[in-house]
């Protein structure tokens, strides 16, 4: 079950509570029994590695780099089975 953050305006206290997502009942503070309100807290995100900033891979296109690394295909290529040349023409 998820943990939610709550704030009690009566005693000015923040606390956490484990609750079901389907539970729609109000939450009361454990100290003063006042009605608490749910607090939405942003999630902390840490980006690791490259590719998350606009300056990381803007210098060259990675697809062009991959294509230039591959050898060009020729009309006659060597077969794996017997070392013979096979032709693309029939």
Summary tags:
90 residues, mainly beta, two-stranded antiparallel ribbon, 6 strands, 9% helix, rod-shaped
Description:
9% of the residues lie in helices and 28% in strands. Strand 3 (27-28) and strand 4 (35-39) form a beta hairpin. It has one domain. By secondary structure, it is mainly beta. The strands form two sheets. A four-stranded antiparallel sheet has the order 2-1-4-3, with no helix packed on it. The longest helix is centred in the last third of the chain and has 8 residues, at 62-69.
Lay out the secondary structure:
Blueprint: E1 3-8, E2 13-18, E3 27-28, E4 35-39, H1 62-69, E5 76-78, E6 85-87
Antiparallel strand pairs: 1-2, 1-4, 3-4, 5-6
Based on Cα principal axes, name the global outline.
Answer: rod-shaped
Q: Major beta sheet, specifics?
A: 4 strands, antiparallel
Radius of gyration: 31 Å
Strand % is: 25-35%
In total, the number of domains comes to: 1
Give average pLDDT, whole number: 76
**Secondary-structure content class:** mainly beta
| Helix proportion range | under 10%
Order of helices and strands: EEEEHEE
How many distinct beta strands?
Answer: 6
How large is the count of helical segments? 1
N-to-C span: 66 Å
Strand order of the largest sheet: 2-1-4-3
Uncertain segments:
none
């Amino acid at each position: 079950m998820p943990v939610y953050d709550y704030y009690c305006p009566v005693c000015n206290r923040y606390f956490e509570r484990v609750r079901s997502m389907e539970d729609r009942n109000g939450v009361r503070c454990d100290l003063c029994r006042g009605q608490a309100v749910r607090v939405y807290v942003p999630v902390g995100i840490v980006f690791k590695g490259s590719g998350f900033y606009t300056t990381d891979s803007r210098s060259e296109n990675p697809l062009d780099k991959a294509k230039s690394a591959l050898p060009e295909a020729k009309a006659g290529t060597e077969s794996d089975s017997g070392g013979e040349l096979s032709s693309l023409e029939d």
